[in-house]
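Practice problem: RNA polymerase subunit sigma-24
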Amino acid sequence: MRSVRAAAPREVDEERLVRLVAKGDRAAFEELYRRTSPWLAVRLRRRCADEQIVAEVMQETYLAVWRAAGAFAGSAAGGTAVGWVWTIAARRLVDAFRRRAHHAQPPPAAAPQPAAPAAEEEALAATVGSDVGDALRRLAPELRQVLQSMVLDGLSVRETAVLLGLPEGTVKTRARRARIAMREALS
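Answer key — C-alpha cells:
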C-alpha cells in the first residue's frame, strides 16, 4: 500500500483518506484537512458570524475526525467523506450554540446574506453558459442553495438537509422546484 505522500494528490479520494486516517496515517489526515478545511470554514461562517465559535468548531470537528475515522461507513452507506465531515461539524456547531445558550448568551445570528452574489455563486454562473448562469441567478435564494449543495457540492438529500438545517422533505421539494424553474427558464 502506497502512502498518501507517494500517491499523486488527486489519486487518493477523500473516502480513502478517511480510511487511512482510521489506521493512524497522519499524512492522510493532513491531506484530508488541506482539502476540506477551506470548504468547511466557509460553510460554518455562513451559519455563524462569531469567528471564535467557528474556530472552536473547526478544531473539535477535526479532532472528532481523527478519533472517529474508523466509524466512517463510507460509500456503502450512501454517504461521502466530505458529507460525513460536514455532519460532524454541523453537530459541533449546534453543540456550541447550546453551550452558549446555557451560559445565557444568545448565539450570534448567522452572517447576513450579502446583496452582491457570493463568490461561489459567481463561480458557478461563470462555469456554465450564459443562459444557464442567468437562470441560476434568477432562482430564489433558497432554491439556488439546494441546487448548489446537491449539484455543485455533490451532496445527498440527507447531507444537504444537514448543511442547510432543513428537513429532508423540504430539500426534496426545493430541489424539484429548482429543476422545474431551471427547465422553464431554459426552454
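Discussion: Residues 113-187 form a domain with the Arc Repressor Mutant, subunit A fold (CATH 1.10.10.10). Students who identified this feature from the C-alpha cells alone can consider the problem solved.
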